[in-house]
Amino acid sequence: MSALLELTGVIGGYSPELPILHGIDMQVDAGEFVTIIGPNGAGKSTAMKAIAGLVRITEGRVTLDGRDITNHPTEEMAEAGMAFVPQTANIFTTLTIDENLKLGAHTLPRKQAAQRIAQAYERFPDLVKFRDSAARSLSGGQRQMLAVARALLCAPRLVMLDEPSAGLAPNIVQDVFVMLRRLADDGVAVLMVEQNAKGAMAVSDRTYVLAEGENRISGTSQEMLNNPEVKAIYLGNAGRKSA
Amino acid sequence: MTGLLAYFVFFATIATIYAIIVMGLNIQWGFTGLFNAGVVGFYAIGAYACAILTGPARDTLIGGFGMPFLVGLAGAALAAALAGLVVALITLRLSEEYLAIATFGIGLTVQLVALNAAGLTGGANGLYGLPRPFWSLFDSVQAFNLFYLVFVVVIGLLVWALLARLVRSPWGRLLRAIREDDVAARSLGKNPVSVRVQSFVIGSAIMGTAGALYTGYVGFISPIDFIPILTFQIWAMLIVGGSGSLLGGVIGSFVIWLIWTGSGTLLSRLAPPDLQAQSSAVQVVLIGLIIVLTILIRPRGLIGEKSAVSSKK
Amino acid sequence: MIQAIADGLSTGAIIALGAMGVTLVMGILRFTNFAHAEYLTWGAYMALAVLSVTGLDAGQTGPFRFGLGLVLATVIAVVLTVALALAIDYLVFRRLRGRVNHITLVFASFGVALIVRYSIHLIFGGAAHYYSNDLQIAWLIGDGLRVMPDQALVFALALLVSVVLFLFLKYSALGLAMRGVAENPALAAINGVHFRKILFWTWAIGGGLAAVSGVFYGMTVQIRPDMGFQLLLPIFAAAILGGIGNVVGALFGGFIVALIEAIALLWIPAGYKIAVPFVVLLLVLWLCPRGLFKGSSGGSK
Lengths: 243, 313, 301
Prior knowledge:
By secondary structure, chain A is of the alpha/beta class. Chain A has helices spanning 44-52, 77-80, 97-104, 110-123, 140-152, 170-185, 197-203, 221-226, 228-234, 236-242, and strands at 5-13, 21-28, 33-37, 56-64, 67-68, 82-85, 158-162, 189-193, 206-211, 214-220. In chain A, the strands form 2 sheets. Chain A has a 6-stranded mixed beta sheet, with helices on both faces. A 4-stranded antiparallel beta sheet of chain A has the order 2-1-4-5, covered by helices on one side. In chain A, α3 runs parallel beside α5 (140-152) and α9 crosses α10. The longest helix of chain A has 16 residues, at 170-185. The model of chain A is unreliable at 237-243 (pLDDT under 50). Chain C is mainly alpha-helical. Chain C contains 11 helices and 2 strands; from the N terminus they run ααααββααααααα. Chain C is globular. Classes of the chains: A alpha/beta, B mainly alpha, C mainly alpha.
């Protein structure tokens, strides 16, 4: 059986003259939790946006369940079973929490939408009391909760998150990671770009390391945590000392 | 002088005056990226300022100071600069489309004032009997017209030289830097808003100067000389020639003025007499088409070459 | 004075109908369309064309000069105006959107305005037209206040439209998606909102309101090729005053602009009429550029 999401030789960027991705290969299986790490400018976020149809792919292909979704319109992503949580501006701050969720369920029939919104409030009970307030009044952690809750509404088989831990307090980061792990255990594949390499690898199944728009190394997160190169470069000073 | 040559002198004088307005618009849009939808207003302010300063005294008028033409020229530049300063100060710290709306309003309002403030502008009848500079030195109208063409071309070259210098100066580089990247310019410790205001005011002053040159040429101005469509004729001249290019602006001025007058002549010959008034609308539709098609065909060349990559907002 | 207020309210309603469309387009599609006023003119002329082609009479219903004929003509004018707005978007704005600095889009709209206004001039001529030559008998209210029944009708209609539009944006799924696109088009796309659908409905609402506003303006003044052009500044002033993207704000903006105009004309010469909304606009931009009422969205930045 082929992978749920598969990238083969993806080249692309914001303008054709200046590709940022120079040939990315990647696979995510159903229910798998995969992390992408790498230095700044490695093309991690760009790769994710390319999958979402927000960045133009000039060569190579992306498939979901074997179906070609290369340069698929972003608008059709939700219906194809994919959800994306951008790093910034990932909620509608002028809309209420309830409206954010309703918009997340935009593609669903009305009855199913109401059901899934009710489920979202069950999963994220913290959001219930803010139902009718504007999302701009939420804290950083609550915003991230709302962004993830919104992404899950369309019942995706794959959720992509661009640095979900950015700007969050360390204990909340842990909550977010645990929540994502649980999601994967429930059968939803998770693809996540992270700066917090150590924390991300600790919860995920597999890890890709990107550098300069290309694959560098990859393997199970367990292997990668112990890989000397990864330790030296991506796990900070602690790794370097012990190496 | 034959009729054809006389017509050419007239044609070239008006086209050169328009080329000077285009230079003023070039510094605002081509070099700084500021949209001015009321070019005609600044031009008219200059024309009327010159007329009021240099015109003969009349009982019914406030103006008519009988001053020398060069004073009129300077006064025209100053008056238009002042109007530009007020608009720029109110709108330039806001989003760029507010500048478009505000300048559009200035264009309309100036025409209203010209039409209604009869004590100052002569109202619908306009101001007449205005002195033409150095008129007494020439014994025929043709000789004066020829002289005036040279005079206008010399002023045009002076403005050109001034702009070319400005663009190459550190201030000109700052203009480009701001157009490319507001944030980077700010980090250099420069205030983009004040540099934009300066650029807008200089452009307005040049348009005012062109207005004074028109007054000195025809010796008679009225609100009909300053209809809103002139703004878009000037814009068409700028973008057809390529904005950001001084030479292109001059070429564009002559080309569009030729198309405008040529289509006018053609229509008056071809259209049946009872449809004359209606058929002149074709000329304006043509200007609209030139603008829209130029934007569609060369959307990026509009804002100058270098900004091609960063122009996406 | 009271007469000036009454007249101002009916002109304000016409301005408000135009401004509600402009504010939606500015808020959702994020650009200032200088051709919008020409959609009013187009709508007025299309209704006129329907009447003259079908030979229908504008008609009369009770005290209103607005019978079945003009209702039918207006409905067709709405359809034709929406078609024009969509065609212009397809031919011009769509090709530029996202590719160029957005002020270039604004510039293109000026060119479009010239083409539309002078094409109307070319087709219908510059002379004034009327829907009906019937004279209307004014209602006398209290001590010498004269109100034309048509004025009262357009006032009521503007109120109704603003309420319906407000409820639509607030509670319908489509309205919610429109507000989402207004704030963040990329995130809306991620949520599965199809931009083209939003684009269609934004022009449909904006163009439709423009046509209705044009017909009413044509009833109260003359139908001329520059009728919309005369309303451009009042409409922008009303939209900015009301806060970009805020339809109820645009309603009040329209009333405020028209009332100031009507009252100012008691003191200043009538020739300066167009300058009044412009001065109001400059004052608003200077004192509170975000409008008196909060914009419902980030609006056009």
